[in-house]
Write a structure and sequence with these properties.
Elements (H helix, E strand, L loop, with lengths): L3 E4 L6 E4 L5 E5 L2 H7 L4 E7 L3 E5 L2 E5 L8 E6 L5 E6 L6 E5 L14 E2 L23 H4 L2 H15 L22 E2 L1
């Protein structure tokens, strides 16, 4: 696999994915609409262990959620572009990377649309792509290989290990300093 590279709007924060995404979806919930300023958020899910910073330091901002849980938007301190979301902690098992930050975003169309109950009425969706009124059960919707990768990463984390490395060659990840917390 050719590594997937991306960056923020100004290029100061650059990253590489060392594996293909687990899954790609478009979320039409009102929270994603507010965070993106658009009709939906186009996310790909990737294990945190396969997201490698090439340059820059991410800026974390905690934002409210409808559930009351922690939710971080992560991006560039310079241009303020959001690059990924982190649910639950600043170092979750999986991040929701904004597909538009990839160098080749058109390669990754949504494989599902979620929270379509709150999508704008004017937005027409491809009926061939599964649509869910709310969230979906990843075990039923994701490909079996992605579910297995998620389970492997979860087991590795529970055992105190990093998820197995990809077979794709990537540069060694940069050492990350603790980002400044924004409240």
């Amino acid at each position: 696999m050719t590594p997937l590279d991306g960056r923020c709007a100004c290029g100061a924060l650059a990253f590489r994915l060392s594996r293909p995404p687990l899954f790609v979806h478009a979320c039409h919930c009102t929270r994603c609409q507010r965070e993106t300023g658009g009709a939906f958020a186009h996310h790909l899910m990737i294990e945190t262990a396969h997201l490698h910073l090439l340059q820059g330091e991410p800026h974390f901002a905690r934002v409210p959620t409808d559930s009351g849980r922690r939710h971080w938007v992560v991006g560039c301190a310079g241009c303020q572009a959001v690059v990924w979301n982190a649910h639950g902690s600043r170092n979750p098992l999986i991040v929701y990377l904004r597909v538009g930050t990839l160098d080749a975003p058109a390669t990754w169309p949504p494989r599902a649309h979620i929270f379509v109950r709150s999508k704008p009425a004017w937005m027409l969706l491809d009926p061939a792509v599964p649509q869910f009124s709310g969230a979906y059960d990843a075990r039923r919707v994701w490909p079996a290989e992605s579910v297995a990768r998620h389970d492997l990463a979860q087991a590795a984390r529970a055992a105190g290990r990093r998820a197995p490395a990809s077979t794709a060659p990537v540069p060694a990840p940069r050492k990350r300093s603790a980002p400044t917390r924004t409240t």
